[in-house]
Amino acid sequence: MSAQRTAGSALGAAHQAGESDSLEHLARIGLIAYGVVHVLVAWLALQLAWGGGGESADQSGALSTLAESPLGKPLLWIVAVGLIALAAWQAAEVLRWRHGWSASGKARTKALKKSGKAIVKAAIYAALAVLAIRFATGAGQSSSQQQQQTTAGVFGWPAGRWLVAAAGLVLIGVGAYHVYKGVTKRFLKEIDTTDCSPRALRLVTRLGQVGFPGKGIALAVVGGLLAYAAITFDSSKATGLDGALRTVLELPFGQILLTLVAIGIAAFGAFCFARARYPERT
What we know:
The protein is an all-alpha fold. 77% of the residues lie in helices and 0% in strands.
């Protein structure tokens, strides 16, 4: 009984933390930080498209650009703290939906779906927070290099090649889902726009319609490169977001296509700013 009471107290504390105003405010800062990273990636992609590229057009390049600004280090720590809070907020969401895991029918499906999405989001935010901390402490490294090293390491595992291929296919699927969400406006079902004015709702809708497909295309290309790395058994092909955007640039009309993708990524970043304003639907 004491063990059950302890577990219940832990779950209650986690739920209470997830509902706390302080964590929610920090999570809003995290959403703004997440949006800033996307806007910076879009800017680097535009530079790449029109011949002025220097930094990698990915999250590491965005954080490196931020680190080089006059207030770079303090800003990176703010970004890291916000993203950690955002990850904790999503982790609390998993515990909030835990009661539905043992339910049946649609209630169980909804609980598992919400929990799965929260786990993935928490992992993404936590990884980006770690990257921000590394750049804040001067130990930052290119995301492309990290992905290549990770892919090479996974290749050494039993069935590692298949795991890399599966990860690539998952990313392609996630990218396709982002495009689907943008085209169908499904993203509006995930946020509460009750207090949104008609003008603000139109703006949020347009940002989502442009942003989700733009990010989805980029993710799908990243997944395609990862799958190609598995097929060729060559970790150097797993070049991450920077490599994906360079691949787009090499296509016919690549400058125009990459510009459109960059606009989409920037719109997704702006959508994150709007998300910081409106709560998530339950």
